[in-house]
């Protein structure tokens, strides 16, 4: 059974990927220091999988700690690197923490992996590297733009670091960069899902918490954009679809099929939806009337972005299967368990 190290494996996308890895016949091993996740996620994983998933409470930016884990866990076939802070607004307040954590953990991985003969890496990147695109949908060839937040800058820096390290002749590293769009929803079992610590930054958890009465109302950040109904457009991908893209990427690396030392894929549905469309879809999916009001724009928001998902489909054979409605229904089902 091929062993895959999943950093940040107790996180939102990480935990859903651990489930898909195990169910696809891999042996996932988690590294997570629970700085932005809860240990209860491990109970959810056990409930779904019927067995425990080994987890090391370790900061993967710490080289000696990472080496210790890799000495316990021999023959790691590949690494999926999720561990990172991801709140745009928070990154503006705490840039140093974001650079130290997000860039530092990648640098440590790239330094230590070759010491253990590990050559395969899937890196969690983000559509945020495109900034405010001139044309839509964005393809992998769409030029990246200067990021508008330290968080976005960490993702751009990490992509550049991967290219530079992979390009250095001495290194056998092969990497697949997955540029996520907007992950939403939860596993059908409702045993794992999005667990925002504190007030949610992201739209869907704020919607579900409003519907659950935890938040008084949703504020829609602006309806005066040049979009079909004036609200922002995003590409909302179900988190299990996103998780499955990682399985395909890992297998491609293990089969050494990657054409280049670094391959980049957009992972999105290929469709855009406005915030109001998401609200209306949620009301339909949940049968709940949502209390919302239009407020001022949120600084840094991109008016519209969604993926051209063609490359993942033609090269990886990957395509999303979950509708916006079903994604939101899964988010609501999960919220009701909290
Ligand atoms: C979506 C839309 C808001 C909350 C960010 C990161 C991205 C990724 C996902 C990590 C926007 C609107 C939101 C609210 C609202 N993060 N909104 N009221 O900003 O597209 O992406 O999170 O990987 O890298 O940039 O996601 O969910 O915050 O916002 O109107 O209370 O919902 O204006 O248009 P975003 P989001």
TrEMBL record:
EC number: 5.1.3.2
Cofactor(s) required, per the database record: NAD(+)
Top-level EC class: isomerase
InterPro entries the UniProt entry points to: NAD(P)-bd_dom, NAD(P)-bd_dom_sf, UDP_G4E
Lineage top rank: taxon: Bacteria
Gene name per UniProt: galE
Cellular component terms (Gene Ontology): cytosol
Family, similarity comment: Belongs to the NAD(P)-dependent epimerase/dehydratase family.
Protein species of origin: Hymenobacter nivis
Pathway membership: Carbohydrate metabolism; galactose metabolism
One GO term of the biological process aspect: galactose metabolic process
Gene3D superfamilies reported in the protein's UniProt record: NAD(P)-binding Rossmann-like Domain, UDP-galactose 4-epimerase, domain 1
Swiss-Prot/TrEMBL catalytic activity: UDP-alpha-D-glucose = UDP-alpha-D-galactose
Keyword annotations of the record: Carbohydrate metabolism, Isomerase, NAD
Example of a GO MF term: UDP-glucose 4-epimerase activity
Protein's name according to its UniProt entry: UDP-glucose 4-epimerase
Record domain NAD(P)-binding: where: 5-325
Subunit structure comment from the entry: Homodimer.
